[in-house]
Design brief:
The chain is mainly beta. The chain has two domains: 2-29 and 36-43, no CATH class; 70-321, TolB, C-terminal domain (Neuraminidase, 6 Propeller). It is built from three helices and 24 strands. The strands form six sheets. A four-stranded antiparallel sheet has the order 1-24-23-22, with no helix packed on it. A four-stranded antiparallel sheet has the order 2-3-4-5, with no helix packed on it. It has a four-stranded antiparallel sheet with strand order 6-7-8-9, with no helix packed on it.
């Protein structure tokens, strides 16, 4: 029955298809280039050329201008001299934000200058005699004080936040591994302390003269191991020992944004610049940076500026590599 219903329509559909096919038109699209394009394809042999610019380098410090500074052979300019201790004594200093902070051992205080070192902004009395100073966080510093332990200071408001007593632990230099772990150094010991608990995490005996310590990463650190040697240690392995014929009584340690290391040789009255593999680069006479006995060395972050302090006059100089 369904077939009988469809059959009459078949002939009608066939006729409709024939009629539609008759109306189909053949269409051809032809592209004719203009004379401008035609001439271009005939005359242009190349679209251009590519050259490699060898002067374009990846920034190692995060600052392309600083990457142009040759820290290893460049000249050192003295930008400012600061009489931190009024003519005598030792001082240690750091850059933090747009500020300079110094310890004043003889007067039991920390003083704050602007980043150029031209203006004394404020000072803070401490319960003990300060020796070294280190950055903890953006606006917090730690000051080591033999007999007192470690004083935590708000560097913005210049107020004493906390005194961390460290009974039985010799205290002189200080360097932070991270925000919760720091190293305290003394003449013959290095001690790792947890900041939150004040508990000793580890301790190491040195060969002597390890008054300052520099933490370079979570596992790398450097310290003096005698009156003529400095050791670089990674984890529990000594990476290298540095010594030199003009290198007596190493004190402050520093590192620039390119990874070069600096050692203040107090009695030799020079600063030794070495690679992070322990290779000698150059000796910088103390007179070049405007002091007599180099004591502490600290660099600004991602910058060519450093502050160097004197171990006898209590002066500090701000210098830059150019």
């Amino acid at each position: 029955m369904e077939v009988n219903k469809i059959e009459p329509k078949i002939s009608e559909l066939e006729q409709e298809v024939k009629d539609l096919v008759k109306n189909i038109k053949s269409v051809k699209v032809v592209f004719s280039p203009s004379s401008l394009i035609a001439d271009f394809t005939r005359n242009a042999e190349t679209f251009g050329s590519i050259k490699v610019d060898k002067s374009s380098v990846i920034s190692l410090s995060g600052n392309l201008e600083i990457d142009k500074v040759d820290f290893r052979t460049g000249k050192i300019n003295i930008l400012q001299t600061i009489d931190v201790c009024n003519g005598a004594g030792t001082t240690s200093g750091i850059f933090i934000q747009n500020l300079l902070l110094f310890t004043v051992r003889g007067k039991n205080k920390v003083v704050k200058y602007n980043s150029e070192g031209k203006s004394l902004q404020s000072e803070l009395a401490l319960p003990g005699s300060p020796e070294d100073i280190a950055v903890v966080t953006q606006f917090k510093v730690a000051v080591s004080s033999p007999g007192q332990g470690v004083c935590l200071v708000d560097s913005d408001k210049m107020i004493l936040l906390q005194t961390l007593n460290l009974p039985g632990i010799p205290v002189y230099g200080i360097s932070f591994v991270n925000e919760e772990l720091f190293i305290i150094s003394d003449s013959s010991t290095l001690t790792w302390i947890n900041l939150s608990s004040g508990q000793q995490v580890n301790q190491k005996t040195t060969g002597g003269q390890s008054y300052f310590v520099l933490s370079l990463s979570q596992t790398d650190y450097m310290y003096a191991d005698s009156r003529t040697t400095v050791d670089y240690v990674v984890g529990n392995t000594k990476k290298f020992t540095y010594t030199n014929s003009e290198f007596i009584y190493p004190r402050g340690l520093g590192v620039d944004c390119m990874g070069n290391l600096y050692i203040a040789s107090n009695s030799s009255r020079n600063i030794h610049q070495i690679t992070n593999e322990g290779d000698f680069i150059r000796k910088i006479p103390a007179s070049t940076v405007g002091i007599f006995n180099p004591w502490a060395i600290r660099f600004t972050t991602k910058s060519n500026k450093m502050v160097v302090t004197c171990g006898t006059s209590g002066k500090a100089t701000i210098c830059e590599f150019v």
